[in-house]
Design brief:
- With about 140 residues, the chain is an alpha+beta fold.
- The chain contains 6 helices and 5 strands; from the N terminus they run βααββααββαα.
- The strands form 2 sheets. A 3-stranded antiparallel beta sheet has the order 1-5-4. Strands 2-3 form a two-stranded antiparallel sheet.
- It is globular.
- The chain starts with a strand and ends with a helix.
């Protein structure tokens, strides 16, 4: 069974995508951005960034899929068979710009994520930082 949690990726803020044409979004490349995989640690600093080598000509949709793939391969989630999937990208239209919002499902086949990963101050914080760091790419 899938537990869905909505994570908002405001791609327009991070990748400068403001076109209302979805074909422009599909064709847009990542450019010269530095991307990192953030792995949780049990001791401070609690998260370890590892630079990812991604070709500047890579399409943004492929970059998002790669970020989710890397998140799925973190031992932190992998050990309990928890994974993530991009279900769709929605357009939020404002008068001056359009934002692309990624909707990501958390797939929890063992039904333990809510109690194990999102409950409590330490576990909840570690999970939140790990997911948001990997998907939002704070730099």
């Amino acid at each position: 069974m899938k537990y869905s949690i909505l994570f908002i990726l405001i791609l327009g803020c991070f990748f400068s995508i403001y076109s209302q044409d979805s074909k422009t979004f599909e064709a847009k490349t990542i450019g010269d951005a530095n991307l990192y995989k953030f792995e949780p640690l049990s001791l401070p600093p609690f998260i370890k960034p590892q630079r990812m080598n991604i070709d500047p000509e890579t399409k943004i949709k492929t970059v998002i899929d790669t970020l989710i793939f890397e998140l799925n391969n973190l031992e932190y989630f992998k050990k309990d068979n928890i994974s993530f999937e991009l279900t769709r990208i929605e357009n939020i239209v404002f008068p001056n710009k359009t934002f692309r919002i990624g909707i990501i499902n958390i797939i929890d086949q063992n039904k333990i994520a809510l109690g194990t990963y999102f409950q409590g101050s330490s576990g909840g914080a570690m999970t939140s930082v790990t997911i948001t760091s990997n998907l939002f790419q704070p730099q």
